[in-house]
Design the sequence.
């Protein structure tokens, strides 16, 4: 049963990853200063279009701006959790930049090339702590509870307009997305010592509308949580979104 459900949801989630549609003209337009003006300690969630510029260049600029003000932990969905030892060895300068792409396996597992993320990995040389939080979609395990944002299916339905779900599948779909949001947020928060900044860089599908990772993270830490989308990409946005343009 689980395999059958995931055979429906996983392709749909992958199809939605580049960007989700949303209600037009309601979001707040910001610049880098809105991110770097956040006072520590704080959690900052950045929504990226996978492997896309200017999103990743902006993420790097934001991280480099924040590290001038305090410690920074950068939790990256692009890197699978199993590769944390690789990030630790990279931080300890035991791995060369030439070897790093083959070890973190972004192209094979994340679906996008290493090159756009290169400068984010290099922030480790400026003292940034790198954390791998990437995980594959899965159904919420039986008996496992997770908080669910109100009206989340309303937000997700905007994203699924081109890939409509049968009505009977909607509860399982929203629980699958919520479970991923929660796992990503929990892995990131668990890696942070609550000093300085925790920056979570994740696919914008899990950031848009303020009901994804940021909503989950706020329930896992008393520190304030701020969410930003790194580009508009000519897409619409929700009232809860702050978009770097």
Sequence:
């Amino acid at each position: 049963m689980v395999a059958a459900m995931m055979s429906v949801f996983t392709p749909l989630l992958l199809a939605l990853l580049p960007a989700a549609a949303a209600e037009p003209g309601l979001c707040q337009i910001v610049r880098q200063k809105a991110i770097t003006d956040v006072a520590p300690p704080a959690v900052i969630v950045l929504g990226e279009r996978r492997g896309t510029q200017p999103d990743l260049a902006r993420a790097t600029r934001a991280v480099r701006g924040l590290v001038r003000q305090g410690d920074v932990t950068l939790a990256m969905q692009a890197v699978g959790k199993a590769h944390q030892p690789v990030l630790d060895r990279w931080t300890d300068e035991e791995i060369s930049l030439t070897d790093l792409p083959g070890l973190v396996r972004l192209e094979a597992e994340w679906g996008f090339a290493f090159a756009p993320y290169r400068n984010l990995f290099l922030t480790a040389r400026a003292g940034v702590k790198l954390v791998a939080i990437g995980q594959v979609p899965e159904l919420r395990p039986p008996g496992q509870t997770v908080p669910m944002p109100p009206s989340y299916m309303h937000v997700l339905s905007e994203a699924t307009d081109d890939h409509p779900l049968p009505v009977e599948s909607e509860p399982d779909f929203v629980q699958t997305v919520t479970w991923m949001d929660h796992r990503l947020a929990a892995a990131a928060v668990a890696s942070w010592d609550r000093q300085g900044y925790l920056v979570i860089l994740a696919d914008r599908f899990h950031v848009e509308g303020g009901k994804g990772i940021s909503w989950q993270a706020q329930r896992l830490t008393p520190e304030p949580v701020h969410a930003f989308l790194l580009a508009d990409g000519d897409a619409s946005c929700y009232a809860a979104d702050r978009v770097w343009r």
Q: What stands out?
A: The first strand starts at residue 28 and ends at 30. Residues 2-244 form a domain with the Rossmann fold fold (CATH 3.40.50.11550). Strands lie at 28-30, 42-48, 72-80, 129-134, 197-203, 225-229, 242-244.
